[in-house]
Amino acid sequence: MRTLITRLSPTLLLAFSCLSVIAPAQGPYKILDHWKLPDPGGWDYLLIDSPAHRIYITRGDHVDAIDSTSGKLLGAISGLHGTHGVALNPDGKTGYISDGRGNAVIVFDRSTFSITATIPAGANPDAIMWEPATRSVWAFNGRSADISVIDADSRKVIATIPVPGKPEFAVSDGKGSVYNNIEDKNEIVKIDVHSHKIVATWPACESPSGLALDPTGNRLFTVCDGKKMAVLDTASGKILATPAIGNGPDAAAYSAKNKLAFASCGEGVLSVIDASGSDYKTIQTLPTKRGARTMTYDPATDRIYTVTADFGPPPAATADNPHPRPAILPGTFEVLVIGR
Predict the structure, then answer these.
(1) How far apart are CA 114 and CA 101, in angstroms?
(2) Given strand 197-203, what is the order of strands in its sheet?
(3) Best label site of 128, 163, 204, 225, fewest CB within 10 Å?
(4) What ranges in the chain are assigned the alpha helix state H?
(5) Is the pTM higher than 0.70?
(6) What is the DSSP string of 305-327?
(7) Domains along the sequence of the chain with CATH
(8) By the 8 A CB rule, do 214 and 229 touch?
(9) What is the number of H-type helices and E-type strands within the chain?
(10) Cα Rg for the chain, rounded, in angstroms?
(11) What are the phi and psi torsion angles at 101 (to 5°)?
């Protein structure tokens, strides 16, 4: 091999050196496994509980809890109405579910999967998060266009924050600020967690949904329609880049260790963006499966979990439902495990 390389022309040597740099970035992630879950129904968001090796998946009238190493179904929180998201208290014992159709936040015991409290929220709570600086739970209410702030100890709503439109996903920097996508206004709002006031409103991109944060680099990653991710500076709100992603995104994630941003897209791709520099290039478009629009990222294992199912033909359109969704075929729901 050494003899061969010494005989190569300078042009070919340059090509070899370029390949050695580019090759690892072209396709580092792949689908490692498929886990089938037998229970029927749709889904919304997933959340990893990395220390417990557990994934929570919202499934309409219940939430599945599965083992993140084997895919085994560990249990379910049942008797709900229309679940969207899950948040976890760092006490390791308590979890919270946004029950959209129930207009409530459900508190559950993570060891028994039993419901311990039901807290009335606004209309159709969707995204939900733990806010560490104030030890509170924030539920983002899609229909009432506001945020219910719940004290973790008293389990009562201590503030209701109006927002300028339909709130989607949100992140906390842990230092006093929450950032929230306003989907129908194409904006991001910055909220002071102590005063419960909006302190900045920034233009984003079309219909922002999923949102991730690089707290060290002070960057937000919001995924939008139009096959774009917008990268924003958390101090100024300036859009720094709009890397290309797949169509129909609904979730974003960030790997601090690898300096990568991810977008899971309903058309059936996972987009991977290099966030180590200032150009934010899309370095991989991994085919997944149609409908795999939401995800969760485990930083401990560098694995991504996304879910989808097989679909039948959509039902006939009606005046009340002009764009009906296709039916989910029974027994086809699965978790896709993605890693290196």
Answers:
(1) 19
(2) 167-172, 177-182, 187-192, 197-203
(3) 225
(4) 2-7, 10-26
(5) yes
(6) EEEE--B-PPPPP-SS-SSPPPP
(7) 28-49+206-228+248-340 (no CATH), 80-203 (2.130.10.10)
(8) no
(9) 2, 28
(10) 21
(11) -75, -20
Residues 6+ away with beta carbon under 8 Å from 320: none
Q: What is each CA distance from 152 to 19, 87, 157, 198, 230, in whole angstroms?
A: 52, 12, 9, 22, 32
Least confident of 19-33, 91-105, 160-174: 19-33
Q: Which residues pair with 272 in a beta bridge?
A: 262, 284
pLDDT one-digit tens code per residue, 101-120:
999 999 999 999 999 999 99
Copy the structure tokens of residue 297. Answer: 């990222």
Close Cβ partners of 184 (under 8 Å, ≥ 6 residues apart)? 165, 166, 207
Under 8 Å between Cβ of 105 and 129: no
Q: Is the pLDDT of residue 172 over 70?
A: yes
Phi/psi of residue 107, nearest 5 degrees: -100, 135
Strand, helix or coil for residue 268: coil
Q: Helix (H, G, I), strand (E, B), or coil: what is residue 183?
A: helix
